[in-house]
Amino acid sequence: MTHLTLPVVLFAVIATATAISAVAVVAERNVVRMAIWLLFTLIGVSLLYFLLGAEFVGAAQMIVYVGGTLVLVVFGVMLTAQGPLRELRTSRLEWIVGGTLGGALFALLVFVSLQFGSRTSADDVLPGVGPLGLSFLGVSETTPSENLRGVPEHSPMKRAPVAYLLPFEIVSVHLLVVLIGAAYLARAKRRVKP
Amino acid sequence: MFEWLSTTPGRLYVIGTLLPLAAFVVLLAAGTIRGLCRPFRQQGKLAAALYWAFGGDQPVKVGGYMATACMAAAAAVGIWGLVLFLNDPTSGRKHAERWSERIDWIRIGAFDSTPPEVWEERYYEWQKQGETNGPPPASPTAVALELGYRIDHLTAVVFAMVTVIGTLIFLFSLGYMQEETQPQVEDHQVDQHSRDSADHGSHSTSPSSVAGYHFTRRGRFGRFFLYLSLFCFSMLNLVIADNLFQVFVSWELVGVCSFFLIGFYYERKSAAVAANKAFIVNRVGDAGFLIGILIAWTYLGTLNFEEMTRRVRSPGEDSHGSLAFANQFVRVNAVANDDTTTQSVRKFQLPPKDDPTPGTHLALFPLAWETPDHYHGLGYKRSQEQGFLAPVNATINDFGAIPYWLFVVMGLGIVLGCVGKSAQVPLHTWLPDAMEGPTPVSALIHAATMVAAGVYLIGRSYPLLAPEVLLVIAYIGAVTLFISATIALVQTDIKRVLAYSTCSQLGFMMLALGIGAWVAGLLHLLTHAFFKALLFLCSGSVIHGCHHEQDLRKMGGLRTKMPITALTMLIGVLAICGAPLLSGWYSKDMILAASLAYVSLHPEHLLLLALPTLTAAMTAYYMFRLWFLAFTGQPRDPQLCEKVHESPWVMTLPLIVLAIFSVVVAWGWPLWQVEASALAHVLHQAEPVSVTVAFYPEKVKEHEVHLGAGVLALLAALVGAGLAFHFFYRREPTLARLTGPAPTWYNFLLRKWYFDEVYDAAFVEPTVGLARFSAAVDKRIVDEATPAETDESTTPRYDWSTLDGILSAVGQLLSSLGAKLQAIQTGGLRTYVTALALTATVLLAMLVILTK
Amino acid sequence: MNDVGLIPFLMLSGFLFACGVTCVAVKRNAVAVLMGVELILNSANVNLVAFARFTPAFRLEGQVFTLMVIVLAAAEAAIALAIILNFYNNHATVDVDEAKDLKG
């Protein structure tokens, strides 16, 4: 059994909060409240990132998700509001089916997770903003401790330089295209139906 | 430019063969373009221009002229080739290189690019080194169906014959088919058909044909020459082919052309039926032919005539002196193979010397054992005493063996094909019906060329035929010539007399081939081609002059009206009867001499002499009967005789040329000696050695009895001609007597020995009955009860008891299944997501369970 | 951090994933469905970062992929909302059960 150290306590608290708010997202019928519960979930996840030592990812999660995506979702809710009291109800049977499905999935995933056994890492700190940014530019300064898997032994190449420039570019272009598409789709149009 | 002409003059024949094909292709293209452009003829623009350029509504004559020109060019090539060939000084392998070529057509198996000659040399080298020098060189494993031509004396002569007669008939057709050049042709003989079909209610007749029973259509001048050209190409290809498969392909092409041409007036029911009959009856023969080919391919490993001969017959010469077996079938017995190292190979041995029963297998000889200057017979080394080994998967370069009965079946199969094509009993019934086609077609196909193909093929594949098969051929020929002649005695349709005469003459050829008179049979093929073409064209001229009246009983006294036709036809009649110094005399005398010689050596086959002699008399009788009925005496139908006129020069010119040919084609010096015939000498050069080997005593005897046979033939012909003279010239027949009641035997002959009726009862009726039965089983009773109103969608009932019902039921089941499956496709987003998640869950669960 | 270990993170990730799937499966509001998708994506991200933390070979890769997923999720949300708006303009509702044009 693990010792009750600070990380363990922190994890327990954050994870419980995240899980509860995720369940609330599912259970809540009001869309606006769902969005609020989702906000808590996302914050919880970003806190988990911090806990894992991935500060940059956590920050990005906070900024992009909480500050961007969620705001977008809220705007969506507002734009499609159909009167304050109208709720889209789902039948009990569907709830049972969906819940059973989710439960089965969760059980399976837990089962699979348990196969991994406990792992520990010597390095306490994940690469920070500097290495990440360099990797996106196609350069790597890191001197990793392990060989890249799949490369023959005694090979002069210790580790291939991490180069995410091309994926980065692809993602950028993708984003651009998506934004243009979104703008096109969402642009003000005359109603077709009366 | 013409270098190839000096190296391989045989290619001339390829060119000659392809010329009619070129005409065919051009005609086909023009006709197709015209037909495609026809819907746009009113709209102007390019399509209409093309339509009018290719004749428009009026059939163009240019196509016919072009086809005739092509055929004439082919004839020129044929004659030129014949001259070159006869004057060719080379011999042996060099000769073969100049006059034959082969290419692979369809390859089967892994291809080894080594040519067989190189391989043979290698094999020979290996043999010289004492067979101790390692394994023999691997033989080429690939086999191929080949295309090739091989010119020998027979081919050269027949090629020239076909092209010359073809050209003349094309020329004749230009005149005879003149009315086909009209944009509107009235076909009065369709009347019967449309009335029939109206009675049966099976066809809906067009209003134009019902009103007054006149059928009008566009002339088919170009189409006629299209078919004729294709036919000529096929026939020439058949003649020059050097392997059975190529022959088979051409054979079928010839058959299908015959089908098209017999059914040329396909609006007439009789023509359509006759075309079908010819095609189907020929299929029976072709099935046998195909069986023969397959056996040859399986056991001999090749379809090339020369190679097959070398396979089945012992080598012609032998450096080791065992000539006792030269060019013969060598029959062996299978014996047990004691050698343990070669368990997988079979061993064969000659039967012991004191054992009279022949062996059960026929020895097959390896091709590669023969080298240019060194021959091995079966006596090579120890094989005669100790037998020889045949590998189980033997190639054509190994010894082998074929069960003798299978070899006989192979020969019978080929003969069955020939029997069908050459209209011999029992497959002769199609030829008289084939007279439904235009007369030039009858002349070209059903007298001169196509029916000769069967005889030609027997002559070609002669070394492959076992003695038993030859005897069968002889009897088939004898029976055919007699039966057909008796039928011809009483026919009243001018073309039908000639058709049965053709059957009969083909029977003569078959008989000759069967009894070993190879040269006589093929000589008769050539001479008969000329005078029968002449006779048919004359009858065509008569029919043309009499405005498509073919009944002999209504003619008479036409001699003064159409003198050229009468005279040329008389020459043809004399030639076919065997009047001395005319071409028919030479060939028929030779056949009768051979038959006399054969019977005197084998008295048990007396029929083979009696039937042809009797038939010679009958031939003279029915031919003179025809001529007297048509040309002499008083006109029996004055109305008809009024309008008769002589044919234009394009039709009489071929008659005159053919008449000259009919007289001189077999001439030699001295004229009065049958054996001096120059054509026979040419043919003799091509005679397979095996003929002499197998029929040596008959050959010797033939020279002895020759004079007697000549006298016999002449006497028979005189008797027949005299009887005809008595009945149809001295006692001039009246219309009443000719059409009056007749005795029973007369009707028996008139109905052609009831062959058609018997076949109807034996084959056609059961087949039709079976078809009716199948249709009844197949049909749904529901359909018949309420035809047309049954709506499938509203009354989806199926009747399991019929085949149709079962099929429908399967279809409807699938359809309803689809309708049920449709419900799953709700289109609902959440359903899909649920299904997706469920699938992922199940897959994950499977992964977990399986990797546990 | 080694005190916690990898497995709790994976379990939390699995829980978030199950919640997301359930959310997508049962919600009728299109925006709610979108939120379910966001949950699923987040669960994947947690997974990635956890593995990056506890597997030395993936220290950089895990984070890089997470960043990319975050960015793509943002784009996806944008376009999904655009589609929802369009749907709303045409059908005057955001009920996904109304979107049955693909019914077979």
Domain unit count of chain C: 1
Q: Determine Rg of chain C (CA atoms, Å).
A: 17 Å
For the record, the CATH class of the largest domain in chain A is Mainly Alpha
Share in β-strands of chain A:
under 5%
| CATH architectural name of the largest domain in chain A | Up-down Bundle
Number of strands of chain C: 0
CATH topology of the largest domain in chain A: Four Helix Bundle (Hemerythrin (Met), subunit A)
Number of domains of chain A: 2
Using brief descriptors, characterize the structure shown.
heterotrimer, A: 194 residues, mainly alpha, Four Helix Bundle (Hemerythrin (Met), subunit A), 2 domains, 6 helices, B: 852 residues, five-stranded antiparallel sheet, two-stranded antiparallel ribbon
How would you describe this structure to a colleague?
The complex is a heterotrimer of chains A (194), B (852) and C (104). In chain A, 63% of the residues lie in helices and 0% in strands. With 194 residues, chain A is an all-alpha fold. Chain A folds into two domains: 1-90, NADH-ubiquinone/plastoquinone oxidoreductase chain 6, subunit NuoJ (Four Helix Bundle (Hemerythrin (Met), subunit A), Up-down Bundle), CATH 1.20.120.1200; 127-149 and 161-188, no CATH class. The radius of gyration of chain A is 22 Å and the shape is globular. Chain B is mainly α. Chain B has 35 helices and nine strands. Chain B has a five-stranded antiparallel β-sheet with strand order 8-6-5-7-9. In chain B, strands 1-2 form a two-stranded antiparallel ribbon. In chain B, helix 11 (244-262) packs antiparallel against helix 12 (269-300), helix 20 crosses helix 23 and helix 23 packs across helix 29 (696-730). The radius of gyration of chain B is 32 Å and the shape is globular. Residues 193-212, 370-375, 377-384 and 784-798 of chain B have low confidence and may be disordered. In chain C, 76% of the residues lie in helices and 0% in strands. Chain C has helices spanning 6-26, 30-54, 59-91. Chain C is elongated and about 50 Å long. In chain C, 62% of the residues are buried. The mean pLDDT of chain C is 86. At the A-C interface, helix 1, helix 2, helix 3, helix 4 and helix 5 of A face helix 1, helix 2 and helix 3 of C.
